[in-house]
Amino acid sequence: MAGFHSLEIAEVRRETDDSVSIGFTVPEDLRDAFRFLPGQYLTLRTMIDGEEVRRSYSICSGVNDNDLRVAVKQIADGRFSTFANSKLAKGDRIDVMAPEGRFTAPIDPAHAKNYLMIAAGSGITPILSLIKSYLAGEPNSSVTLIYGNRNAGSILFLEELQGVKDHYPTRFSMINVLSRQPREVPLLNGRIDADKCRSLFAGPVDPTHADEVFLCGPQGMVDDARAALEEAGVDPKKVHMELFTPADGSVAAAKAREDRAATMSEADRAKLRHVTVIFDGIESELDIASDGETILDAASENRADLPFSCKGGMCCTCRCKVLEGEVAMDVNYALTPEEVEAGFVLSCQSHPMTDRVVVDFDIK
């Protein structure tokens, strides 16, 4: 069952000038609920200036670290990130949802895999969890990390990554690419874009040897790296992606709504559709116009317990399955084509397109 648990903060550690990591104390009776897979995230909830604010942050701990920790980088005008970086302290309590996310692959001690990780900025957070978990859990596997940052001072988890390198000198290699700090080797200067990936793939990194590839960072970097991998002949099924910031999420969503409205009559756009929402086995009935609120926003007025986090189409916290009828999504940065084909949607981006729609949050 999805839901929040109040956890005590065990530690707030300053990682860089603009980021902290937050460790949580997990009581014994919640140990099972908070077991996680590498690459998963936590949804945090708190009240800021009298308003409920939720955000998702990736777990940076390895599965064997005996630690539950997320990293929060402060962003301009970021309400939660500013709060976390300036206000949260050891001993505070905050609401935390059990781990979620599919940015992962099974750990198997029998594996002898080559993992390629490409990250930029705070995209290293889930990547760090993946690196530590695979190196510890698969003694015959190796990991190569390509990591982009502005300068050496902005490299999140630099000391920890160097510690991993010291512990696994033959199985872990790291390539740091800096965009605003000159390096002696030109290949290590600049942003991680399609051209940089092509240069790296033609030199020190052969992506065709990778059994699994993980990409995490801003949308531009992820899209460029994915295109370069495809050019290099890497099977797309091996590539796992997670976005930290979509390039134009709100613009894309607005355009999707405009395009959809252009194909509908005015009467049809304003027509109310009957939607049944199932969560925790309880059905809720509501009426929504196709060009009005999303299913999540409309349902949340009566069901405050519905799971959601980013409301930007980037996480899967609000994922549900359409059992009856049809819906249209504004944007989707999280669901795989296979999930969409199977009928799953992001309720924060979904609008009913038939007279009756039934969605179920309980189906995983």
Q: Main attributes?
A:
364 residues, Elongation Factor Tu (Ef-tu), domain 3, alpha/beta, iron, 3 domains, 6-stranded antiparallel β-sheet, 33% strand
Q: Report on the biggest sheet.
A: 6 strands, antiparallel
Radius of gyration using CA atoms only: 21 Å
Number of helical elements: 9
Strand adjacency order, main sheet: 4-3-6-1-2-5
The second-level CATH architecture of the largest domain is 3-Layer(aba) Sandwich
What is the averaged pLDDT score? 93
Helix content: 10-25%
Range of strand content: 25-35%
The secondary-structure element order is EEEEEHEEHEHEHEHEHHEEHEEHEEE
User: In CATH terms, what is the fold-level topology of the largest domain?
Assistant: Rossmann fold
Termini separation comes to 11 Å
Protein name: Phenylacetate-CoA oxygenase/reductase subunit PaaK
Keywords: 2Fe-2S, FAD, Flavoprotein, Iron, Iron-sulfur, Metal-binding, Oxidoreductase
Pfam family, one: Fer2
Cofactor: FAD; [2Fe-2S] cluster
Structure description:
With 364 residues, the protein is α/β, with parallel strands linked by helices. The chain folds into 3 domains: 4-100, Elongation Factor Tu (Ef-tu), domain 3 (Beta Barrel), CATH 2.40.30.10; 114-243, Rossmann fold (3-Layer(aba) Sandwich); 266-360, Beta-grasp domain (Ubiquitin-like (UB roll)), CATH 3.10.20. The protein contains 9 helices and 18 strands. Helix 4 packs across helix 5 (219-231).
